[in-house]
Amino acid sequence: MTEIIAAALKVCGVVALTISTVLVPFRAEAQDMSVEDYNPRSTLVVSGEPVTRAKFPFIDVHGHQNGRQSAESLARLIGEMDEINLAVMVNLSGGSGDRLVGTIRNMEGAHPGRFVTFANVNFNGLGEAGWTERATEQLEADIRSGATGLKIFKNLGLSVRDVAGERVAVDDPRLDPIWAKAGELGVPVLIHTGDPAEFWQPHDAQNERWLELQLRPRRLRDPSAGPSWDDLVAEQHRMFRKHPETTFIAAHLGWLGHDLGRLGALFDELPNVNAGLGAVIYELGRQPRFAQKWLVQYQDRILLGKDSWNAEEFHTYFRVLETGDDYFPYYRKYHAFWSMYGLDLPDDVLRKIYYQNALRIIPGIDRSLFPG
C-alpha cells in the first residue's frame, strides 16, 4: 500500500520521501502508545460548566488531616475550604489519648467550629487479658476529651491480628463492647471495610479496575491469602446487625456503589446504617437515572465526604450532584475511565446530603454555620 501511495505522489510531482518521513513515523507513534497513556479528548459538544463551589455549605465527613500541622498550613486549608463552601471538616485521623488531645487543641482551638475530630482504636495487644475493657475505657476518655465519633480503618478485617497471630474479623465478639459503647455515648462509627470488589478478581482484560491495578499493583488481593471481598462485607453487615443501637456510617458507600439495590436493601433492613460518598462519586455519575431515584429514596442516609484532601476534586462531586450535565470527566483516570453525568438532585435532597444528615448524626457541629 505504501508503494502505491508513493507512486501516486510521484506522478503528482510530490517527492516519495514524504511517505517515510511523515506518514510512517506518525503511524509508528500511535502504535507505540500504551493503554495507560491513552487519554482521548471528547469531541462531544455539550452544555454545562464545572461547578467550583457547592450550592449550599457542606460538611465533609471523610477528611484526613495531620493534627500537628502549622498555623500557616491550617490557614491555607481554611482558605481552600472557604473557596468551595466547605463549612466543617470531620478529621477522621484524630488518634487517641494525648495525640487526640493535641489534634483537637491545634485544629479546633485555632479555628473553632471548622473542624470536628474522630478518635481511632489502637488494636495492638488485642487478645491480651483486659484489652477490650481498656479499649472501651479509652474510647470513653477520648469522647470526654472532645472527639465526636469513632473512625475504623480498613486494617480491621485485613491486617489486624491478635496476640495469637490470628486475623481479627470485623465482627469479632471481642470488639462488641467498643461498638456498644459508641452507641451508649451517642457518637457514630464511621468504618472502612475492604476495598473495591474488583481488587479480588483476576487482573485481566475484563477487570474494570485493570488500569488502577496496573499502576498500583499492591492493591491486587490474593483470594487465597486472606478473606474474600464477600467475607469482609458479610462480617461488616453482621456487626451492624448485632448493634442496632449504634449509628454506623459505611465509608465509600460500603463498596456497594456498583450495586445500589443491595445497599438500599441494607438500609431497608437496618435503620442504624448510613453511608458516605468518599472516593466513589464515579459510581453514581455513571448511572444517573437510577442513582438519582435512589438518592431521592435514601436521602436521609447519605453523607458527603471525599477522603484524601484536594479541594479541586470536590468540583466533580458538586457537578454530579447539582447539575444535569452530560458526559464530563472524572478527576482521576485510574479510578474511572468513564465519563460522568449529573443527577440534578432537588435542593431539599442536596441539603440533606450536604449537611442536614451529618448534623443529625454527628454531635458537636456548629449549627449556626448552616441555613435553617
Describe the protein.
The chain has helices spanning 2-11, 17-32, 71-83, 97-110, 131-144, 155-158, 176-185, 210-215, 229-242, 260-269, 281-285, 288-297, 314-322, 347-361, and strands at 58-63, 86-91, 115-120, 149-152, 189-191, 248-250, 273-276, 302-303. It has 372 residues and is α/β, with parallel strands linked by helices. The chain has 2 domains: 2-32, no CATH class; 58-369, TIM Barrel, CATH 3.20.20. Strand 6 (248-250), helix 10 and strand 7 form a beta-alpha-beta unit. Helix 5 (131-144) runs parallel beside helix 7.
Task: Fill in the keyword field for this structure.
single chain, 372 residues, alpha/beta, TIM Barrel, 8-stranded parallel beta sheet, 14 helices, 40% helix
Summarize the structure.
The chain has 372 residues and is an alpha/beta fold. It has helices spanning 2-11, 17-32, 71-83, 97-110, 131-144, 155-158, 176-185, 210-215, 229-242, 260-269, 281-285, 288-297, 314-322, 347-361, and strands at residues 58-63, 86-91, 115-120, 149-152, 189-191, 248-250, 273-276, 302-303.
* CATH architect. name of the largest domain: Alpha-Beta Barrel
N-C termini distance: 72 Å
- SSE string: HHEHEHEHEHHEHHEHEHHEHH
Question: Given the structure, what is the number of helices?
Answer: 14
> How many distinct domains?
2
CATH level-four homologous superfamily name of the largest domain: Metal-dependent hydrolases
How much beta, percentage-wise?
5-15%
Any idea what the radius of gyration is? 25 Å
Main CATH class of the largest domain: Alpha Beta
Are there runs of 5+ residues with pLDDT below 50, and where?
4-24
Strand order of the largest sheet: 1-2-3-4-5-6-7-8
**Overall shape:** globular
Largest sheet, in brief, is: 8 strands, parallel
